[in-house]
Amino acid sequence: MLISHVMPAALARLRTFDEHRSVRDAAEALSDTQVGLLVVLGSKGEARGVVSKSDLVRHLARWTYGEAPLLEVMSQSVVSASPKADLRQTWQFMAQQRLQNLPLLNANRKPVGMLDIRDALEAILQSEERQENELINYIAGYGYR
């Protein structure tokens, strides 16, 4: 199963901000419980960094002014995946790295979605349940003559 299987949820969770938007704007966006990570965009719409709730807390702990641009707060290393990647492998990677959210980028590094680990796990579990039911039906002989 590919990540593209959960693209509707990933697209709904995607929030992007220009690198010059304020920390206050980011805090407002991250106050939404469905949003766990913001993708910070460069001038050509490419992913330049990400801002998490932890990034904001670290910034605020330094008592810096809330109108600072996201460029000063963001993590510049963007760990991401393609919607064409295997969902189970991506979920395992996220679990190993303790990532709750993972930006989905296209070939031009433009954001196309935000994979939430809960959405990935739910899709994997639904797939497993579907396969289990198919196997039970096969063994029981339902639908086969």
Automatic annotation (TrEMBL):
Which keywords annotate this record? Answer: CBS domain
SUPFAM superfamilies linked? CBS-domain pair
Give the matching SMART domains. Answer: CBS
Q: Where is the CBS domain?
A: 7-70, 74-132
Question: Per the record's keyword annotation, is Transferase included, yes or no?
Answer: no
Source domain of life: Bacteria
Q: What InterPro entries does the record tag this protein with?
A: CBS_dom (IPR000644), CBS_dom_sf (IPR046342), Diverse_CBS-Domain (IPR051257)
- Presence of keyword Ribosomal protein: no
**What is this protein identified as?**
CBS domain-containing protein
Q: Which organism is it from?
A: Devosia honganensis
